[in-house]
Amino acid sequence: MTFLDYAPAPESQAVLHLRPDYGLFINGDFVPGRGVPFQTINPATEKPIAMIAHANTADVDTAVAAARRAYDRTWSKLSGSDRGKYLFRIARLVQERARELAVAETLDNGKPIKESRDVDVPLVAAWFFYYAGWADKLDHAGVGPTPSSRGVAAQVIPWNFPLLMLAWKIAPALAAGNTVVLKPAETTSLTALLFAEILQQADLPAGVVNIVTGGRETGQALVGHPDVNLVAFTGSTGAGRAIARSVAGTDKKVILELGGKAANIVFDDAPIDQAVEGIVNGIFFNQGHVCCAGSRLLVQESIHDEVIDRLKQRLSTLRLGDPLDKNTDIGAINSADQLRRIRELTAIGEQEGGERWSPACVLPDSGFWFAPTIFTNVSTSHRIAREEVFGPVLSVLTFRTPAEAIAKANNTPYGLSAGIWTEKGSRILAVADKLRAGVIWANTFNRFDPASPFGGYKESGYGREGGRHGLASYLKPAAGRSAARTVATAPAESSPELDAKAPVSRKKAAK
Amino acid sequence: MTRLAVPKTYKLYIGGKFPRSESGRVYEIRSHGGGFLANAAQASRKDARDAVVAARSALGGWAGATAYNRGQVLYRIAELLEGRRVQFIDEIVQTEGVTPNAASAQVDEAIDRWVWYAGWADKYVQVAGNANPVSGPYFNISVPEPTGVVAIIAPQSGGSLLGLVSAVAPALVAGNTVVVVANETMPLSAVSLGEVLATSDVPGGVVNILTGSPAEMAPWLASHADVNAIDLVGAGDLDWVNLQIDAAETLTRVLQPENGPDAASPSLARIVAFTETKTIWHTKGLI
């Protein structure tokens, strides 16, 4: 070890008091599931953490019935300010137990502790704090005066930001007056169950939030349940498509946050040091398990070599290893399945002619690991430039003119996010106007905030989460007001005066 | 001796031109009383696809026009419709069998609807978008943008002109381009509206009007990968659940059928339904 190396600095697990097994959280209590329980493991070591209950269809029925009862008898009758107070309580409890939640998240998900500690968990608290304040101000949410809640929300979340995605879903749903049945991802149920304990500490009325753990079929049973009024899903475009099909003909409101293949565009006048940091943050944050990851680097031809050299230098300084180590930059891949998919797509990337590079990097013996990887010499038709890898893999393409950059950036069925790096303000505005993506970061990347709407164009889904727009998704205009009925887009979510109506036609004197 | 009238050939309106159906098919349009009125073009799936191509080509220009300009163009439609009231009243009386007064009221309402929506073009962004107070050195703003190419199955009952205008106008406000399937049995005012649009500074391809069978064309439009949103407002009598399932393949945004006299009633929600919210984070430098 030289004096430049880092000594191990593992975060203590002493703060964590896990049970050996966890039940489903239904109607305010933990209850056994009727399916076969499954193990949740630490992806960095493959060691078991706890047993998790498996909800079958009957369990999902019970959970939806509990949510319906809580909606009818309790939550829909509560004042907005009281709903808000519960959410404030939850925000505070998350802050109080922040370290414990961060350690649990890192154990279960494999992400570096510095991310779960400094990004995920603080944002969870911020999300509840933000939406808590909305609960008694719904008249200003953008769907007209005295909007109503929708009822029971079925929410299915992914494994990449387990607790944060839970917060994105539950906070606005409760603020708007809905009750919730949430299904965490199969490989990352742990923090949702710790969150259930927080709900007990907050004394949230029974049944307002129910958490059913399990696999894909649990999620399908929940989403397809006839007694849910709203479906909110974050995950793959394939699964989102199936949900869009399954709700056809119903009046279920749907919010879909799906895949992405974001372009991160670096112009020749960009601040290179910041851009390199932004590229790294864009694709290697959370091992690239980010739907809005900047997985396609579009770099102007004249600075390609310089940017790639600097990028390689920077990647060589990233530390991959024990996610609980406070100095770790790159943690574990969340599951064996995901690792297999990343390996498969990167192998195809090589076969198709991409030049593969990774820094010298020792991968731990056990657990699921993948070294940060960049592909240069990639063209737009390569699969690694089209398909979502959902891993620490960057595809580098070049362009000569802004028009070419925009055309390449938009050349994807996705439209979730994009990045622009240039010192020229007018260029930022012009390019941002032309990119078909729901979130655009100019001279930054992967920023999230509860006040900021997030969501995609095209096949990246519809609806927005975050901000006023995200609240409006969970509301409907007061009865009797005719707003365009929509299943899919997010219309409902956007304006303070959605009920604005044209004057009813007057009969004119014949001319 | 009375003068022999010169009847009009009713054709499609695609890309700013008035083609016949590529299929060569026509279908008879009869008056409310049953008499022959016209042979309308019976558009095929290829016509529908051509219309989508025209709408896609026109999108950049229309979405990129200033909001003020779009508002003026939409207002210009009202002006020209006003000047052709008599023609529209006559067609409505013949096809719908209503009284001249009722037809006149329908035309008036259609004109006023263009005026109402025209006024929104340079305002809806202010109402539907906003700045976001994020916790960091960023200027963050959310703005609605047009969704893209919108396919519409126009209302098949109620006033044939008013139903069409009520569905088409809100989609145009934000800068979307439109492919609309007109009222099947009463398409004459739709074709005539195409003639108004063609002379109203509306760029060719921004609105494309198809006459014929909604049941035949709707599946092709719903499953078309280059259609970004489909408004099924007038598809209540079709197998619309399957249309919604088809649309899911490319996550096409769907508005479900509406029935009754309030179908497609004017609202800001109808404008916003065809928009996507874009949120932009601008880094604020440290000075």
| Strand residue content of chain A | 15-25%
The chain-level structural class of chain A is alpha/beta
Radius of gyration of chain A: 23 Å
Q: Please tell me the total number of domains of chain A.
A: 2
Uncertain segments of chain B of ≥5 residues (pLDDT<50)? Answer: none
- The biggest beta sheet of chain A, please? 7 strands, mixed
* Strand adjacency order, main sheet of chain B: 7-6-5-8-9
Mean pLDDT of chain A: 94
Question: How many β-strands of chain B, per DSSP?
Answer: 10
CATH class of the largest domain in chain A: Alpha Beta
CATH class of chain B: Alpha Beta
Amino-to-carboxy terminus distance of chain B: 88 Å
What is the fourth-level CATH superfamily of chain B?
Aldehyde Dehydrogenase, Chain A, domain 1
What ranges of chain A have pLDDT less than 50 throughout 5 or more consecutive residues?
A: 481-499, 503-511
Rg estimate of chain B, integer Å: 20 Å
Shape of chain A: globular
Q: Per CATH, which architecture of the largest domain in chain A?
A: 3-Layer(aba) Sandwich
Question: Biggest sheet of chain A: strands side by side, in what order?
Answer: 14-15-16-13-12-17-18
Written account of the structure:
The complex is a heterodimer of chains A (511) and B (287). Chain A has 511 residues and is an alpha/beta fold. Chain A has 2 domains: 237 residues, Aldehyde Dehydrogenase, Chain A, domain 1 (3-Layer(aba) Sandwich); 187 residues, Aldehyde Dehydrogenase, Chain A, domain 2. Chain A has 15 helices and 20 strands. In chain A, the strands form 5 sheets. Chain A has a 7-stranded mixed sheet with strand order 14-15-16-13-12-17-18, sandwiched between helices. The C terminus of chain A is likely disordered. In chain B, α3 crosses α4 and α4 runs parallel beside α6. Chain B is an alpha/beta fold and 287 residues long. The longest helix of chain B is centred in the middle third of the chain and has 21 residues. In chain B, a hairpin with a 5-residue loop joins β1 and β2. The mean pLDDT of chain B is 97. Chain B has a single domain, classed as 3-Layer(aba) Sandwich (Aldehyde Dehydrogenase, Chain A, domain 1). Chain B has 10 helices and 10 strands. Chain B is globular, with a radius of gyration of 20 Å. Chain B starts with 25 loop residues before the first strand and ends with a strand. At the A-B interface, α8, β18, β19 and α15 of A face α4, α5, β4, α9 and β9 of B.
